[in-house]
Amino acid sequence: MSEPEISQTEPVAAIPASRREILAWAFYDFANSGYSTVVLTTIYSAYFVGVFVATIINKSPGTGPLLGP
Full-prediction pTM beyond 0.70? Predict the structure, then answer.
């Protein structure tokens, strides 16, 4: 079965977003940006230092590179 050809001869008119939709997307973007920032700066950095770096320098997991000899 072949795919039907889609031909578009006229440009599709964009429907402007309502004020409510714009506000909803602004709140969504604000919350999503905050979530990403918290995850990247706290959770990922704690994992990276506590587990990944400790594993590389043969220390026990949970200890940072500057803790202990």
Answer: no
